[in-house]
Each structure stands twice: as structure tokens, then as C-alpha cells.
Amino acid sequence: MRIALSFLLVASVVIFVLTFMPKGFSESSDNLAAVAFQIISDGDSIMEVEEIPTQGPKASILFVGDIMLGRDIESKRDKRGGDYPFGNVTAEFDKYDLVFGNLEGPILSDHKKTQAGSMSFSFDESAAESLSKAGVDIVSLSNNHTADQGQSGLIETINFLTDQSVLPSGHPNVIRREDVTYANLNGYQIVFVSLNFTYGYGGLDSAASLVRELRGDSQEAFLVVSVHWGDEYQTKSNARQREAARLLIDNGVDLIIGSHPHVVQEMETYKSKLIFYSLGNFIFDQYFSADTQKGLAVGIEIEGERVTVRPISVEIVQGQPRFVNN
């Protein structure tokens, strides 16, 4: 039987709401009856709106935001070691069966350092090893920077990642079934679809068709969409994001994780499914505002028919993230 996807949010989300969501938690007005979780503030307890069976093994995934290992981050890696950006987070990564992030740029053998202020990124080949050593398992390539160095750079990126056992997900320019990534975690099938809508939503119907096809393949799979979209530096999603999210969920998606704005955007429920419109930055050298030096990580645990969701605040200090309310 397909996971019922009645989400439970632990109390730490209240801190996230107060910090990042000035307009508050949003529940889609046409689906209030379907919401199966509630934000609470009584310690660390979990309040269940309905009784959810909890039998069988557990599987856990941690989602983090934008990872950019060039420009000043590269300078810091050169001075302090390639693993410097991940120094404060690997212990938390180790608690999860799988870690997923958005890789904002290509990895090249003939790498030339990206100059300060440049928006055309590239990372040296040690970046793939650093991701792997830190415990990152899957990275989305569906964004507006993975193709900064052309098709050859994209191919090299895929090769460097797979050589280090980091799985790529998606493509920066096309939507194809062959770019879907699969994981089997303790008997649970997890399907990752990565999409890039930063160039417009012309591919939205194709994306909806793809997720509908994947849902038709398996009613039991947990189907996650990672999507690059929205307006940079805006803490509120736009109408196109919200329309796209609803269409994707209508066609079978269980969880949506957004990126691209470089700041945290709101969280919403629709048909009892969660939408995180933007996790913001995770590793980035955007030191010019407080919002770009905050992020959000999302931990999920699947146990039988219950999914527990733990939003975790992230602070970025000199390009190095740390979790601040776990």
C-alpha cells in the first residue's frame, strides 16, 4: 500500500516559523480538511491529528539548499582544506540514510577559478570528493549554473560525481525520464525528479506528465520533486511557483523541495503534501545580507505509513553552514 503521507512536524518548526515566515504557515484553503499535521509548541512532543500506523523499518533523508563551491568558497577551501565548507555538518549528515542537495555549478578538469562577482561558475575536480566525503549522496543538476561551462562541462560534472559515488539528478535544460534518480532505502522506494524552471515554465506540462507516469509505475514509491524556480532574494513564493506546485502534486508528487531564490521561502501544505518553496543557501559566498546567510534543511523519516518532517534552521558563517535548531 502506498505510504499515506500524513506528515507530522516536530515542535522545532515553530522556531523556523518565527525566524523565516513573517506571513506565517500557509495551509491551502481548499484543502484544510486534508491537512494531517499541526504545528505545536509543547516541548519536543508530536501531536497527531489522526492515528498513523508505525510499523516496518525506517528510512531517513536530509535535504539541503544551494551548494556553490567556487569564488570565495574555493579560496577558503584552498587555505583551509577542501572539506572546510562541510566541517560543521558532517555529523548531522551521518544521522541520515541519504543526503540530497542542489549543486550550483559544474566540476571541471581544466578548471579556472571563478572571479569575485562572476556569475559563471566552475569548481575544481576535488569538489566531487569533498561532497562524497561529507556524506552527500545525490545532487540536483537542474539549475541555471550547471551548464555554465557548456555541454562538455556538464558531462565532466556527471563523470566526476559518479566516480565519487555521488548520484546526479536531473538536467539543466531538458526534462527526461533518464535523468530521474532512484534510491531504495530499507525497502522504501524513493524517486527523485529534479526540474529547472528558472528559464520559464514551458516544460511544466512535460514535468507533470513525467511524474504522472512515474506514479503510474508505482503507487507505493515516495516521489520527491526538487525544483529550481522563483524570484531571487524574495522571501515569498510567486504565483507561478504555487501553480506549478499544485499541478505537480495533482499528478502524484509527495514532497516538493525548492531552490534558487538564495533565501528561505514559506512552507505550505496542499492535499496533505508539503511544499518547501525555497531552502535558501547552504554553502554560498553571498555575504551581503542576513537572509542569504540563513538557510533551511529538511529532514524526513519514513516509518510504515508515517512521515515525520523536521525543518532545521541553518546559519552560514564565512561560507560554512551549521545547524542551529535541531
TrEMBL record:
Residues 60-286 form the Capsule synthesis protein CapA domain. Belongs to the CapA family. It comes from Candidatus Taylorbacteria bacterium RIFCSPLOWO2_02_FULL_46_40. This is Capsule synthesis protein CapA domain-containing protein. It comes from the Bacteria. InterPro entries: Capsule_synth_CapA, CW_Biosynth-Accessory, Metallo-depent_PP-like.
